[in-house]
Specification:
There is one protein chain. It is built from nine helices and 26 strands. By secondary structure, the protein is an alpha/beta fold. It has a ten-stranded mixed beta sheet with strand order 23-22-26-20-19-16-1-21-25-24, covered by helices on one side. Strand 17 and strand 18 form a beta hairpin. Helix 3 packs across helix 4 and helix 6 packs parallel to helix 7. Bound molecules: alpha-L-arabinofuranose. Alpha-L-arabinofuranose binds next to loops.
């Protein structure tokens, strides 16, 4: 197989947010995962787990979406501010029927993002909230002048307004967020977004409209028909800066999704085939968006993606706690390569969810923490953040799989960073066969190459008993000569190369 790279042809910019994450008040994502409270014996800084924060910083988390998900359209932000003992307790009806004590609220979220050094993405409540409630939340968070909400924030100990980078106007409003039709939601969006005031002209809030579930192309078309608005100069922004897309890889079906760690070859390849389907979804939604927005000013925000397996046996079904194997790592690697290739339109991706829920990068149990194979993928791909996508093409690409479940054997993407260093992420999906790849640069000779690899059996995973079974390691290419590099990708491997050209 040959990978051709045209190092002279930059295609689009890869926004760091493409490597973003999602946190919801669900199971042990927030409570126990990210936040343990200041009185916990687990080492913490202002209640945030120190080990988790450090690991996420090392992974270079660019943005964190909060508070949901389904939870967002039932969240009333005022219940999560002020002295903790006065905060209302509520039942988390979506997720396990447990008591939500609101001890993690707006102030705690901004503290967490400050510690992580990442951008903020707050998701508002359209399903069961009011325009006023949403508008006042934005005022509370972002207004620095004199106003009832700014005064309330100050009284609660936060003098300076925070920066809200992204604000989501509802979540999955076609389903759990209110069961709305596209036209009804589109009109609601027009209304609600009006009151997301841009209090600080130097720190505009990007407004995200609720987009489709998977292949619901009608939703994309109908929502845009209802609420797309092209700004007239000197206005810089229309009604929306982003349109979301949600897509989960469910191996079998929603009733019997399949185990996270025990699966057949057939299920493995079906999973990969479903991961590759992201390419078609993005392409087709992009085509509809381009009918309104040919200059691609509106970002496609894939703010929920990942594998959704059966919960681990014996755990609360409402907590969506699942293990994470090399199969999940392959799904992450393929998906992120797809996002890179579509970075002219895909401006954000949020893996669902960051800790202890669905395809998590981190699992915790009391004071113990495990980095999942997916964590290492995000860590190895961090070099793509803020880089420019380069033109690349795989010649002789063949298929792998079993009868009825075939998919592309190797996937890749290539970018160049501000210092001129190339990042090549190249994955061999086959669970059984190695693959030799020659990388051919167009005009320049290869200077230095550094490699990192993540590999193992497709069902290998890290547990609390064996936390380091799957880990990234250094990787050596076979040969480097003139304008070419030759390497062998072992079966089920993900390789990142950092290449300097002469
Ligand atoms: O991530 C779990 C749930 O999946 C989210 O709450 C919801 O938006 C989606 O259906």
């Amino acid at each position: 197989m040959k990978l051709h790279i045209n190092e002279n042809h930059k295609l689009s910019h890869i926004e760091p947010e493409v490597y973003g994450h999602f946190s919801e008040h669900l199971g042990r994502c927030i409570y126990g995962g990210l936040f343990v409270g200041e009185d916990s014996e687990i080492p913490n800084v202002k209640g945030m787990r120190a080990d988790v924060v450090e690991a996420l910083k090392e992974m270079k988390i660019p943005v964190l979406r909060w508070p949901g998900g389904n939870f967002a359209d039932e969240y009333h932000w005022m219940e999560g501010i002020g002295p903790k003992e006065n905060r209302k307790k509520m039942i988390n009806t979506h997720w396990g029927g447990v008591i939500e004590d609101n001890s993690f609220g707006t102030h705690e979220y901004f503290e967490l993002c400050k510690q992580l050094g990442c951008k903020t993405y707050v998701n508002g409540n359209v399903g069961s909230g009011t325009v006023r409630e949403m508008s006042e939340w934005v005022e509370y968070m972002t207004f620095n002048g004199v106003s009832p909400m700014a005064e309330l924030r100050k009284a609660n100990g936060q003098e300076e307004a925070w920066k809200v980078d992204y604000f989501g106007v509802g979540n999955e409003n076609w389903g759990c967020g209110g069961n709305m039709t596209a036209e009804y939601y589109g009109n609601k969006f027009r209304n609600y977004q009006t009151y997301i005031r841009q209090y600080d002209g130097n720190a505009p809030i990007s407004k995200i409209c609720c987009g489709a579930n998977a292949d619901d192309y009608d939703w994309t078309a109908d929502v845009l028909k209802t609420c797309f608005y092209k700004p007239a100069p000197p206005q810089a922004h229309g009604f929306m800066d982003g349109l979301s897309l949600h897509y989960y890889v469910v191996v079998n079906n929603w009733e019997h999704k399949g185990s996270a760690t025990e699966f057949s070859k057939e299920e493995y390849y079906r999973c990969m085939k479903k991961a590759y389907y992201m390419d078609e979804l993005v392409t087709r939604h992009d085509a509809i968006m381009s009918q309104y927005d040919p200059d691609k000013k509106i970002g496609m925000m894939v703010d929920e993606w990942g594998c959704w397996h059966d919960v681990e046996p014996g755990t609360n079904p409402g907590f969506l706690y699942q293990q994470n194997s090399m199969r999940d790592a392959q799904v992450a690697g393929a998906t992120l390569n797809i996002f890179n290739k579509h970075s002219d339109r895909v401006k954000m991706g949020c893996l669902a969810q960051i800790v202890n829920v669905l395809q998590a990068v981190i699992l915790t149990e009391d004071d113990k923490m495990v980095l999942t194979p997916t964590y290492y993928v995000l860590h190895m791909y961090r070099f793509h953040q803020d880089a420019d996508l380069l033109d690349s093409y795989l010649e002789g690409a063949n298929e792998t799989g079993v009868e009825g479940e075939k998919c592309k054997k190797v996937n890749e993407s290539v970018s160049v960073d501000k210092d001129g260093v190339l990042t090549i992420t190249l994955n061999n999906v086959s669970e059984a066969e190695d693959e030799t790849v020659t990388i051919d640069f167009r005009d320049r000779e290869v200077g230095a190459v550094e490699g990192i690899i993540l590999n193992g059996k497709v069902d290998d995973y890290n547990s609390f008993e064996a936390p380091n079974k799957v880990q990234e390691k250094n990787f050596a290419v076979t040969e480097c000569k003139g304008k070419e590099i030759e390497l062998t990708l072992p079966a089920c491997s993900l390789v990142t190369l950092r290449v300097t050209l002469k």
